[in-house]
Amino acid sequence: MSRVLAPRDTRRTWMRVAMVAGAATVVGFGAWSLRRFDPNAADSPFLPCLFQAFTGLYCPGCGTTRALHALVHGDVVTAIAMNPLLFLLVPLLGVVLWHASGRRVPLPRRALDMLLGPWFWLSLIGGYWLLRNVPVWPFTMLAPG
Questions:
Q1: pLDDT level of residue 6 (50, 70, 90 thresholds)
Q2: What is the pLDDT of residues 48-64, one digit of tens each?
């Protein structure tokens, strides 16, 4: 027996379809751009990090474009070397988004509360930002290659 959708359910369904289609378009265009253009080249259409240009220091996002460029070309080792935090954040953000969508996350409540708290994210990103600018080994491994 099929269920008839109310107009509100139909609108919600179309909104989800539109959001998924929009996200797929953005990801597809981004992947195409990263395959087509090299962010390391002098004539690259990608913007350099303005924070690094003004301060000479690395921000938490420095190396992300080059990491994604290496990733779409299949070079996982170089991608991780460019921005190791990116490969930690993607699964963590996936868990947070999964939880935000109303689905049950198979994590202990304490771990989930920590992931959803702002202090965790401020500590993680702020600590990474600070440590990747320390010019002493092993912290130099956090700087983009």
A1: low
A2: 889 999 999 999 999 99
The pLDDT value recorded for residue 63 is: 92
Same domain flag for 13 and 73? no
Residues 112, 97 contacting (CB under 8 angstroms): no
Range in 1-5, 74-78, 128-132 the model is least confident about: 1-5
Is the domain of 32 the same as that of 53?
A: no
58 with 115, same domain: the answer is yes
Buried b (16+ CB within 10 A) or exposed e, 51-83: eeeeeeebbbbbbbbbbbbbbbeeeeeebbbbb
Q: 106 is in which domain, residue-wise?
A: 47-142
Main-chain dihedrals φ then ψ at residue 28, nearest 5 degrees: -60, -45
Under DSSP, the state recorded for 142 is G
pTM across the whole model? 0.78
